Amino acid sequence: MITSLTLLILSLAALYIGAGWLVQGSSALALKAKISPLVIGLTIVAFGTSAPELVVSLNATLDGQGDIAIGNIVGSNIFNIGVILGVSATICPLQVKTRLLRIDIPVMLVATILFTILFWNGTLGRTEGLSFLAGIIIYTLFSLFYSRKHGEGPSLELEEQPKHWAIDTLAIVGGLVVLVFASRLLVDNAVSIAKELGVSEAVIGLTVVAAGTSLPELATSIVAASRHKTDIAIGNIVGSNLFNLLAIAGSCSLIHPIEAKNVNYIDLLAMSAISVLLLPLVKSGQKISRTEGLVLILLYVIYMFWLLRDTI
To answer: Domain Sodium/calcium exchanger membrane region: where (predicted)?
Structure first.
């Protein structure tokens, strides 16, 4: 048990480091390609910080551990809004740009509801996976098109990228290698701990694995909030949740149909409810206040108490 817990902690640390390299390298390359900071935040940074979820869920799917694969996706989305946005808002009220309010958050809500409906029977097939992947491709292309059409370009501050592109590429490759090995270590030891504690793989996926793989999002949003770059803090979460639902669930179920009967309708409804709640929160003055941030944290705590009620 102690050995498994130690390896689990080490794997989480490695995931955090690997995701950092991936985000740093990919963001630098994107800036060299003259892609705007907002689009980078919504796509490249958000997708990069979701890389741990992707690799962990892919490995779990290939190992036939559907409860961990789906539990990781659902749990991460709940954690992202309840904890990360909640904590970020308590640090600094999160001002929301019009684009996020009119386009990106509604798209995330549609993806959340669609995922909930299609996964209601506890399975995801290749057809659903293909539709999810098509959705994330369309969203990414739209973001790039929208950015160029509305004249969004990199700021002068961000344009200064003295590093050679080869160094950025090396950071991306190194980050991916670390992510692959760390995710395998995480899944294996999470399953081991679940068996020793007598809890289901779904619960482990929804809690420990989900929170652990969300560490890059947590660090990114908290740093952004503390520097008053609040649009990045919330944009990172919206983009990450979209990536989790469309790219991760899509790629996993396309590679191999997923069955996760222990991730039940309560978990799906909790994810949908806290996602839907985000829209009226940001519409109230186009920001998430400190009080509203505390409410999000409280909702997550209540969900955790319900989820772990049999083990407490």
So the answer is: 4-144, 169-308
CB-CB contact of 138 with 110 (8 Å): no
Cβ(226)–Cβ(92) under 8 Å?
yes
Pinpoint the alpha helices (H) of the chain: 2-32, 37-39, 46-49, 51-62, 66-79, 86-91, 98-99, 105-118, 126-149, 156-159, 165-197, 201-204, 210-213, 215-226, 230-242, 249-255, 265-283, 290-307
To the nearest 10 degrees (0 to 180), the angle between helices 66-79 and 165-197 is 110
Identify whether the C-beta of residue 186 lies closer than 8 Å to the C-beta of residue 10.
Answer: no
Nearest 5°: the CA angle 109, 113, 115 is 115
pLDDT digits (tens, 9 = 90+) for 28-53: 776 776 666 566 666 777 777 788 88
Residue 198 backbone class (left: φ over 0; alpha: ψ -120 to 50; beta: rest): left
Neighbours of 310 (CB within 10 A): 9
Q: Taking the model in full, what pTM does it have?
A: 0.84
Neighbours of 127 (CB within 10 A): 12
List pLDDT tens digits, range 224-250: 788 787 777 788 899 899 999 999 999
Cβ contact 86:300 at 8 Å: yes
